[in-house]
């Protein structure tokens, strides 16, 4: 997707602070963090949101994303104190970037319910 900002980050056309990368996944720090640790984990392949996932994605893409999150949790020292993983979907979910992403939030106590 030519104009998608997260595709541009994945292609390194837009700078970001990358904290993890492999063939399929890239993770980078959110430009407007809402927690001391705020990392976005995305598939390099463009998928609009959770709504567009296909059966095949549950076999490789989604496991890869959660393996990456697990690695980041250890890397960022969040395992003991806890953290939150969020994927906003569509208008009511508060999604502002149309490329599937998972927020990894940590370093402070989270509230429930979210706003
Ligand atoms: P969401 O609102 O769930 O779609 O999350 C999109 C997130 O992307 C927000 O937390 C933004 O701060 C973040 N964001 C937008 N542009 C960039 C960028 N160029 N680099 C890093 N994070 C970004």
How would you describe what is shown here?
The protein is an alpha+beta fold and 115 residues long. Strand 2 (25-29) and strand 3 form a beta hairpin. The relative contact order is 0.22. It has helices spanning 5-10, 61-75, 90-93, and strands at residues 18-21, 25-29, 37-43, 83-86, 102-106. The chain has a 5-stranded antiparallel β-sheet with strand order 1-2-3-5-4, covered by helices on one side. The mean pLDDT is 97. The chain has a single domain (5-106), classed as HIT-like (HIT family, subunit A, 2-Layer Sandwich). The structure holds adenosine monophosphate. Adenosine monophosphate is lined by residues 5, 14, 16, 28, 30-32, 40, 88, 94-97.
Explain the layout of strands and helices.
Layout: H1 5-10, E1 18-21, E2 25-29, E3 37-43, H2 61-75, E4 83-86, H3 90-93, E5 102-106
Antiparallel strand pairs: 1-2, 2-3, 3-5, 4-5
The chain binds adenosine monophosphate.
CATH architecture: 2-Layer Sandwich
Give the name of the CATH superfamily.
HIT-like
Q: Which residues sit in consecutive blocks of at least 5 with pLDDT less than 50?
A: none
Domain module tally: 1
The proportion of strand residues reads 15-25%
Output the number of helix runs: 3
Output the structural class.
Answer: alpha+beta
Q: State the order of secondary-structure elements, H for helix, E for strand.
A: HEEEHEHE
Binned, the helix content reads: 10-25%
Q: Ligands bound here?
A: adenosine monophosphate
Largest sheet: 5 strands, antiparallel
The 3D shape can be described as: globular
CATH domain class: Alpha Beta
Query: Number of DSSP strands?
Result: 5
Q: Give the termini separation.
A: 31 Å
Output the CATH topology: HIT family, subunit A
Strand order of the largest sheet: 1-2-3-5-4
The overall pLDDT average reads: 97
Radius of gyration, taken over Cα atoms and rounded to an integer in Å = 14 Å
């Amino acid at each position: 997707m030519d104009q998608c900002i997260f595709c541009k980050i994945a292609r390194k056309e837009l700078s970001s602070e990358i904290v993890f990368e492999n063939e399929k996944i890239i993770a980078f720090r959110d430009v407007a963090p809402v927690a001391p640790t705020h990392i976005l984990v995305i598939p390099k392949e463009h998928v609009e949101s959770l709504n567009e996932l296909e059966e095949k994605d549950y076999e490789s893409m989604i496991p890869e994303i959660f393996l990456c999150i697990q690695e980041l949790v250890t890397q960022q020292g969040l395992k003991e104190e806890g953290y939150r993983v969020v994927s906003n979907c569509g208008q009511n979910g508060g999604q502002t970037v149309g490329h599937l992403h998972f927020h990894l939030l940590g370093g402070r106590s989270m509230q429930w319910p979210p706003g």
